[in-house]
Specification:
- By secondary structure, the protein is mainly α.
- It folds into two domains: 30 residues; 51 residues.
- Helix content is 67%, strand content 0%.
- It has four helices and no strands.
- α3 crosses α4.
- It is globular and about 35 Å long.
- The model has no long low-confidence stretch (mean pLDDT 91).
Length: 83
């Protein structure tokens, strides 16, 4: 089994080479297995919560941090089932 660092490296490589808008829409496609969609959403929620906690960040991420701070209250209490 791969380590989290290996998965992280693969995810970084994917995010560096693909169109994020298209990938996001593809993940929401009805052909994607619901368990995969749920797991992907949990990943997004954790990203939002982690970015919302940042006080120091690269200026390139300022808009992302602001958006995550706005979204955090909405997703913080969301309970997504482990499917």
């Amino acid at each position: 089994m791969k380590s989290y660092d290996e998965y992280y490296s693969e995810l970084v490589a994917i995010c560096s080479t693909v169109n994020a808008d298209q990938l996001g829409r593809r993940m929401a496609d009805r052909k994607t297995h619901p368990t995969v969609q749920q797991t992907f959403m949990r990943l997004i929620v954790e990203f939002i919560l982690a970015m919302a906690e940042k006080s120091d960040h690269d200026k390139r991420n300022a808009a992302t941090v602001r958006l995550c701070k706005q979204l955090a209250p909405l997703v913080r209490d969301a309970r997504l089932p482990l499917v």
